[in-house]
Structures are given as structure tokens and as C-alpha cells.
Amino acid sequence: MDLYHIWCDLQAGVSDLDFCRKLDAWLGHLRQDGLIEGWRLTRRKLGLSPPGMGEFHVMIEVRNLAQLEDAFQRAASRTEPAEGFHFGVNSLVRNAVFALYRDFPDPVRHVGDERF
Fold first, then answer.
1. Where are the beta strands (DSSP E) in the chain?
2. N or C end of the chain: which has fewer CB within 10 A?
3. Is the four-CA dihedral 13, 14, 18, 20 of positive or negative sign?
4. Does the structure show a pLDDT above 60 at 25?
5. Quick one: pLDDT band at residue 105, thresholds 50, 70, 90?
């Protein structure tokens, strides 16, 4: 599984629950269409995080980079309903930081004659 991470803050005056609803609509749309496997939203607690990390953390699970690329293509198409969902989230956030991680060891990792 590959994990696409997004850390962000909300624009001034944006309701945290409105952000949650719109994120659920966007990522639910992608999941329904098989473009992601799942997702999770977390919020920083007690102000604890490294500098530059946003208050909110979105983790999006995809099977592989091909599935992630398909999700990116859906967003880039700027066609409805995807454009409305995607803009509905993007317009609410600022200071977005992105990262891509993978499960480890993953199925392609070999160590000697052993496979994890």
C-alpha cells in the first residue's frame, strides 16, 4: 500500500466541520470510483508537531502509483463532479505539504533468499 500524506491548515474563517464534510465528499467520490482504497483525517493535538506541519493531516491509501496517478488525472480533468469536490476542499486550505510513503517491507522487497 502507498500512503499519500497531506498536512494543511485551514483558511481564516473556515469551519473545521465544513472542511471535514467537503473532504469526505471529495475522497468518498474517489473511493467510490475505485481511485483510492481509503483515507483518514487527523488533527494535531496539544500543538505537537514538527515545524511546518499543518494542523490537519490527511492520509490517502492507494494500491500503487498507477492508482494514485488515476486519482490525480481525475482531479486534473477539471470535469464535474470531480472539479466541484476538489475545488471545494482546495479552496478551504493553506500551507499544504505533501509526502508519499509506502508500507515496508513491501511485497517486492527481497533479503537474500527471504521475501517479506
1. 2-10, 38-43, 56-62, 93-102, 110-111, 114-115
2. C
3. negative
4. yes
5. confident
- Taking the mean position of all CA atoms in its chain, how far away is CA 9? 14
Tell me, what DSSP letter sits at residue 31?
H
Cell of 57: 493531516
HSE toward the beta carbon, residue 15, CA cutoff 13 A: 6
**Count of beta carbons in the 10 Å neighbourhood of residue 55:** 17
Q: Where are the domains of the chain?
A: 21-93
Close Cβ partners of 74 (under 8 Å, ≥ 6 residues apart) = 30, 33, 35, 82
CB 89, CB 19: distance < 8 Å: yes
Query: Angle at Cα 42 formed by Cα 67 and Cα 11, nearest 5°?
Result: 95
